[in-house]
Amino acid sequence: QRHLLGIEPLHPVEITAILDKAEEYAALNRSAHKQSDALKGLTQINMFFENSTRTQASFELAGKRLGADVMNMSMQSSSLKKGETLIDTALTLNAMHPDLLVVRHPNSGAVNLLAEKVNCAVLNAGDGRHEHPTQALLDALTIRRKKGRLHRLIVAICGDIAHSRVARSNLILLGKMENRVRLIGPPTLMPAGVAEFGCEVYDDMKAGLQDADVVMMLRLQKERMDGGFIPSEREYYHRYGLDAEKLAHAKPDAIVMHPGPMNRGVEIDGTIADDINRSVIQEQVEMGVAVRMAAMDLLARNLKASRAGEG
Ligand code: CP
Which amino acid positions bind carbamoyl phosphate, per UniProt (predicted)? Predict the structure, then answer.
């Protein structure tokens, strides 16, 4: 692949290759010397048109640990504020010869559009409600490490499915790897057409969580609700917030995941989020750096090979 724009175009063999490479980087990140020279001499530009803590920090750290020159564009103070378009901004940066562009954008499809206009590798760091491929890959790595496999598991993805690029990328990846995916949430937050992905749909948490191996909670993404129906947080927590009573319906060794940012007392009880026997939320963050190192390493190899072929 030239870019990493989504999970949809990836073959299971490619997914496994990224996870295996990420395992190597997870070990490196735990060592005293965290450096590699996989991206030495290459330039990485991070363009975040939407807020981020985990994804932006881990892409920056990943690039630096791989030896790249990393530049974080401050989109708040860029010439976008003077009316420059996304494409003109991208073409301007492209003229500076970056090798890797990491892009987060509030509009679905914006990163794919940008990738058509530049001649470097583009990594999607989340576009609207479309895809967040590195999040799904880091979730997959976390599941594989905790459960010892990434197939024939029952994975319950719970909450605001309709507005979630994390849910979309995860259900595509987990389906490709032959897991049973259950989507649980209020009908108002369930997108039409999810059945075509082979998911089971529930509006009752206890029924949906029955015998689940993995429980993945999602935030209410109010910023994407466009003036539509927003449930009251109190009522939402009562029906869909993960507490000990609801979690008791999953398998006794079920793991609890959350991509962050997390709203305690809305979609998840804080004591469950902090329970080191069930919650793997901090491990997800740790795997985020390793997966982003792996993805950039593998894309850089493809980039170097295609440039060598052209030369
Ligand atoms: N999970 C995730 O994308 O978090 P950030 O918005 O903080 O990057």
Answer: 54-55, 104, 132, 135, 260-261
pLDDT in tens, 197-224: 889 999 999 999 999 999 999 998 877 7
Is 129 annotated as contributing to ligand binding? Answer: no
- Separation CA 209–CA 202 (nearest Å): 9
Q: Is 211 exposed, middle or buried (0-12, 13-18, 19+ CB in 10 A)?
A: exposed
215 vs 170: CA distance, rounded Å: 12
Give the C-alpha separation, 231 to 291, whole Å: 34
pLDDT for the residue numbered 258: 98
Ligand 1 within 6 A of CB of 223: no
Q: Cα separation of 125 and 66, whole Å?
A: 18
**Reported ipTM exceeds the 0.85 cut:** yes
Distance of CA 308 from the midpoint of ligand 1 (Å): 35
CB 285 less than 6 A from any atom of ligand 1: no
Q: Report which DSSP code applies to 66.
A: T
The residue nearest atom 6 of ligand 1, judged by CA position, is 52
Question: Burial, 175: exposed, middle or buried (Cβ in 10 Å; 0-12, 13-18, 19+)?
Answer: middle
Distance 55 CA to ligand 1 centre (A): 5
Pairing of strands 180-184, 154-158: parallel
Mutation test residue for ligand 1: of 49, 50, 54, 216, the one with most atoms within 8 Å of CB: 54
pLDDT tens digits for range 22-41? 999 999 999 999 999 999 99
